[in-house]
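Supplementary Note 2. Why include the ligand at all?

Several targets in our set were suspected to adopt different conformations when bound, so apo predictions alone were not considered sufficient. For every target with a known small-molecule partner we therefore ran a joint prediction. The input for zinc ion is given below.
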Amino acid sequence: MKTLTIIVIIYGVLVSGCSRLAPTERNLFPAGEWVDLSHDFAADTIYWPTAEPFKLETVAAGKTDAGYYYSAYQFSAAEHGGTHIDAPVHFAEGRESVDQIPLDRLISAAIKVDVSEKAKADRDYQVSAADFEAWETQNGRIPDGAIVLLQTGWSEHWNDRMKYLGTDKRGAEGVAELHFPGLAPEAARWLSENRKIKAIGLDTASIDYGQSKLFESHRILMGQDIPAFENVANLDRLPAKVAMVIAMPMKIRGGSGGPLRIIAFVDRAKN
Ligand SMILES: [Zn+2]
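The joint prediction is reproduced in token form.
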């Protein structure tokens, strides 16, 4: 029964977006705040320059002949756009597709590494192993099983394709002109060899920086079954240590990724 109540509360929070818990719910769950880390999906949502953007078509919206209101839409989009997940199979043959990623890998305590000052000075900035070491000097070792979130500050450019991607061109021409921060391959290697993380996420369009040609960080992480969350929102609202992150992608059978609803719980007692 208790479990059911908690599920109902979590569902309620998911449905209402980020909200503070009502006093009566505090008995069941620690005091704190849920933060919505997903951007919404619409025609202007940022997708990779070669990808089909999000499309929402109206099937019905209005009063029916029988007198009641009815609305329904159909949507289509590439897997990799907006806030989304890269499943391991995206860059590692034979690895998990999005429907096969165990739930346990998508729900965990998280840490946040803020490199936004460095990224502000260099839009091609790549998060380094030294950035993780500096985080550990301040906060202690990255716990086993953590989800790692990288804050480059890029989500403040979300509504401006030119600033966010470095180009507003489409197709291969656009890909050549991408400039945004990412994770350095040496840092991806450092994380996968020296720490046991469940997943990684950041607030730019790709875990590899915009000018990457070989997508090495993708290949290193996904070769170890570590999924990546991309175009994550609201990381500035999280502390260095986050009580819980829940990242639920659309369960596309055999998919290499898909739209992602990702939320964080910030425990007020610890922050
Ligand atoms: Zn992707």
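The first helix runs from residue 2 to 16. The longest strand covers residues 257-267. Comparable summaries for the other entries are listed in the accompanying table.
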